[in-house]
Design goal:
The complex is a heterodimer of chains A (about 375) and B (about 325). In chain A, about 75% of the residues lie in helices and about 0% in strands. Chain A has helices spanning about 10-35, 40-50, 55-80, 85-105, 110-140, 145-165, 190-195, 205-225, 225-235, 240-245, 250-265, 265-275, 285-295, 300-325, 330-345, 350-369. Chain A is globular and about 70 Å long. Chain A starts with 8 loop residues before the first helix and ends with a helix. Chain B has helices at about 1-35, 40-60, 60-85, 90-115, 140, 145-155, 160-180, 180-190, 190-195, 200-230, 240-250, 255-275, 290-305; strands at about 280, 285. In chain B, α2 (about 40-60) packs across α11 (about 240-250), α8 crosses α10 and α11 crosses α13. Chain B has 13 helices and 2 strands, in the order ααααααααααααββα. In chain B, a hairpin with a 3-residue loop joins β1 and β2 (about 285). By secondary structure, chain B is an all-alpha fold. The radius of gyration of chain B is 20 Å and the shape is globular. Chain B has a two-stranded antiparallel ribbon with strand order 1-2. Chain B has a single domain (about 1-305), classed as Orthogonal Bundle (ABC transporter involved in vitamin B12 uptake, BtuC). The chains are: A mainly alpha (about 375), B mainly alpha (about 325). At the A-B interface, α5, α6, α13 and α15 of A face α3, α4, α11 and α13 of B.
Chain lengths: ~375, ~325
Amino acid sequence: MSAPTKLPRWAELALLPLLNLGFALLLSGVIVRLLGESPWAALKLMVAGSVGTQEGIGYTLYYATNFIFTGLAVAVAYHAGLFNIGAEGQAYVGGLGVGLVALWLGDAPRFVVLPLAILAGAGFGAAWAFLPAWLQAKRGSHIVITTIMFNFIASALMTYLLVNVLIKPGQQSPETREFGAHAFMPAAHDLLARAGLTFAATPLNFAFVLALAAAVLVWIFVWHTRWGYALRVAGENAAAAVYAGIAPPRSIMGSMLLSGALAGSLGLNELLGSQHRILIDFTGGAGFVGIAVSLMGRNHPVGIIFSSVLFGALYQGGSQLSFDMPKINRDMVVVIQGLVILFCGAMENVFRAPLTAVFARFGRSKTGL
Amino acid sequence: METYTLIVLLLAATIRVATPLVLAALAGMFSERAGVIDLGLEGKMLGAAFAAGAVSAISGSAWLGLLAAIATAVFFALVIGYACITHRGNQVVAGMAITIMVVGLGPTLALAWFNLGGQTPQLDGPGQRFVGLAWPWAQSAREVPFPGLVYAELLSGHSLIVYFAAALVPLSAWVLYRTRFGLRLRAVGENPHAVDTAGISVNGLRYRAVIISGVLCGVAGASLSTAASSGFVRDMTAGKGYLALAALIFGKWKPWPTLGACLLFAFTDALAVRLQGVALPLVGVIPVQFILALPYVLTVLLLAGFVGKAVAPHAIGVPYAKEK
């Protein structure tokens, strides 16, 4: 066998992910065809529904906000060599923290409530990541399994709290009373109106800006601080890290707590920005979309923002699709999500070898002349 | 007398709940003992449940449904195998991907084919389901509380798949510990290089392991949609694949202890249903969510080494590279 040559940087960072994504979308198109609808028409509907109108754009970015938070959460853990499947549970419990502050201080001034809600979301999310992190760092319990278990435990805990403790008295469905108005995250159309711009009323809110800020902070932390460096070294090679004076258990703890804090911030968008109460399953699988988003974005904040917007468009376009194509509903979006994870995550090596061969031949013929 | 009847009925419910768990956990055991993490259990089972429900509804035969279920689950197992064994992809990611995809695919196909809002038609025709098999004299035995009731409720009256699952435990133990294939399977999960050195194909063995896992997940899925209930509904596995994975870990990747873990988890599930809103002496009403979360809490405690120690197969999750 010939020695594998490395791909050029642009091919590694852009071409290969796009190729993988392309195959995932191609296969999705084949499924749509099998369902008896035209993939081309479906694509046009989805694009029109997600970015064709102000309303579509608002919803797309609103969904993307959730995915940026959970995608960053998965990525930060990934750089420390950890696969955090628990973003879903951490987001759920983090939302409890956000919601409790909002219920408690909903009538206090905004500049008091919102910072406290941000801290509570991050704190509760990090707390829910603490035990799996500690068990991985100190006792070697596999974090994939423990975070899965913690997702189920979080779900049971939240159902219990909402059904028995936090439920609004005299109500059937398990949800809390509405937050005080000061705990609402400022809506994008209100903020833009203040600047003299008109924008359609959508759930898009200030949390989108917070998510972008979180992406910048993650970028600075992971690539431009000593702690981020230590975390990446420990993730690449724990043994080498020890020789360099880095304690892997500490990176594990640090990255997982940060990961949980990021996931826990989902409530800022979903609860403070849109639902204005805590309700069952408000995370809606965003923790798992975070895995897809992080894998597709190559675990880099810039890539994560791009892929979050793409997934936001998929979610928004998908609901548009279910209106216009009776044979397709929003579950199709979940299929696409699964295919993206499959091709961008598990099968990323499948196209690497042929692509490398193409580049090797191309390169040789050029130098051979 | 009342308590006795209640306990027997509780145990009967335990057996019914445990069946798909046992099948899925043993499926995971074959895969993981060969060194391939099986996070796709949930997805393969759900896909199989859909296939069984759909094909049984169309063809009118539960057996054809079972065949379709097995074919579907094996197909997904092969996709995971192709990604993770042939191309050395990340096994955790592959399992998650299959599961997420199937969660969406089942209702999507069901909607397109049957137009019933994401589920398959109700199976009520003759032969469309695996129904309970009444053993001889079960009906009259019911009148004799002991051992008649035990005979009628615990031994008799289950579907064929329940008995298959029960037989599978000793069979798996025999295959794993008493056959050459089992020895090689365990070896490839512990030290694939040694197996390779002995001139045996690591990838071949691992493919056979994931195919076995696919077959058993297929049966588990069929049991959900064509035995335990009558038709496929959205998310009908409801985390049973992950619960089976927890049982597998709790059973330390060994057949008999895994059966024990499955029965324990199924018992907590059956108990949770019974205890809903019932006040117990001393403790009062136990919230049903606490009982439902118990298997996961126990598994975390076990993984933490607080109750025994679970040691995974040594080479689990590590793709095998020949050149290294």
